[in-house]
Specification:
By secondary structure, this protein is of the alpha/beta class. It has ten helices and 13 strands.
Length: 292
């Protein structure tokens, strides 16, 4: 029997992972299929979607790592969003003849988000599939607050720089994956060469300096300090992600390669320094904190 989960699964946080595990617990389930979309529904409903926590490829890989057998990506259009809950499930079951659907208590689907888990149970009674409802996964943050694991919460935590808390909800550090591109190349002159990473549409945390872990295309893992912001000491600049990797020779050429930057903890906010010397001194202290 096939079991399915339906959702955006952006970030594949602990709540999403729990859905996959719950489906896997069913003795008669042979395959777990994560049904997702090629774009966020708000792209059509409101004309704009929340910033991405994961690229589609990473999302698929994370779902498979959590236990999904395969990922079915649906093409998002007005016709799909305009279906009633009953019509959507009828259409989906013709495409994937599932016998079980696993969702959380806050699941909504169908036109105007009018369907919920009770709707699923009623449709299942008619069509012959079971619905299993997962309890909300809760996470204890660094300050002791207990919160539900949700993608919207991860985005808020990143917006305010709380990357360690975001990692607790995700079950791993939030990562930005992208190619190294040429920047102003000031870091090399200042004695702290940096890799300017294009975030490729993935959400960046708030402006500031962070301790990060960096993985290269060949699997090499390094520690580093990442700066996000507009380099206020040198005047207004485009917002960038610059990463200084500890213990790597300055001669290492990373241009054109892809880096995976995982945000471990916040170090400090973005500051405009009165002199380049003050900036260099602070960069040295930042690296000491990262290496501690």
């Amino acid at each position: 029997m096939d079991a399915i989960l339906i959702g955006n699964f952006d970030g594949v946080h602990l709540g999403h992972q729990a859905l996959v595990r719950l489906a896997r617990e069913e003795a008669d389930v042979e395959s777990v299929i994560a049904v997702t979309f090629d774009a966020h529904p708000l792209t059509l409903l409101r004309g704009a979607a929340p910033p991405l926590l994961t690229l589609p490829t990473d999302r698929s890989n994370l779902l498979r790592a959590a236990g999904a057998s395969r990922i079915e990506s649906l093409r998002l259009d007005d016709g799909l969003l305009g279906r009633s809950p009953e019509a959507f499930i009828d259409w989906l079951r013709q495409r994937i003849p599932f016998g079980l659907i696993v969702e959380g208590t806050d699941f909504r689907f169908g036109r105007a988000r009018s369907g919920d888990v009770r709707t699923l149970e009623a449709i299942g009674a008619r069509l012959g599939f079971r619905t299993r409802v997962a309890e909300q996964v809760e996470v204890t943050l660094c300050d002791g607050n207990v919160v539900p694991a949700r993608s919207s919460l991860v985005r808020w935590l990143l917006e305010v720089g709380r990357v360690a808390d975001a990692a607790r909800v995700l079950g791993r550090p939030h990562e930005v994956v992208g190619p190294v591109v040429r920047g102003a190349q000031r870091g090399r002159v200042l004695g702290f060469p940096t890799a300017n990473v294009d975030p490729s549409g993935i959400m960046l945390p708030a402006d500031g300096v962070y301790a990060v872990q960096v993985r290269g295309a060949d699997g090499d893992l390094w520690h580093g300090a990442a700066s996000i912001g507009s380099n206020p000491t040198f005047g207004e600049q485009p917002r960038t992600l610059e990463v200084h990797i500890l213990g790597v020779p300055a001669s290492l050429d990373l241009y054109g390669t892809s880096l995976r930057v995982g945000f471990v903890r916040w170090i400090r906010g973005m500051v405009r320094f009165d002199s380049v010397e003050d900036l260099v001194a602070q960069m040295s202290r930042d690296c000491d904190k990262v290496g501690a």
